[in-house]
Amino acid sequence: MPKQNQIQKGDIVVLKSGGPKMTVQSIGEPRPGMSGNTKWVHCIWFEGNVINEYNFDDCVLTIPDDNTGGN
């Protein structure tokens, strides 16, 4: 399984703790107050017909073994 620092724009990711598959829309540089080389990853996903989005620290995301769309 790839490491979180290999996540790229357009990848499908999930939280390490589980949850829906999300698409990486963009990746940014560390913000003030973030430790180490942690970058933020802007993800989007659907819950029914509602689109959601959030900026996650890259250390909490992973690429699933089945890196295809859908649930």
Give a written overview of the molecule.
The chain is an all-beta fold and 71 residues long. The protein has one domain (4-62). The protein is 0% helix and 41% strand. The chain has strands at 12-15, 22-28, 40-47, 50-57, 61-62. Strands 4-3-2-1-5 form a five-stranded antiparallel beta sheet, with no helix packed on it. A hairpin with a 6-residue loop joins strand 1 and strand 2 (22-28). The two termini are 19 Å apart.
Supply the number of helical segments: 0
Instruction: Give unreliable regions as ranges.
Output: none
Global Rg: 12 Å
* Strand portion: 35-45%
* Strand ordering within the main sheet: 4-3-2-1-5
Count of extended strands: 5
Helix content: under 10%
Give the helix/strand class.
mainly beta
Summarize the structure.
By secondary structure, this protein is mainly β. 0% of the residues lie in helices and 41% in strands.
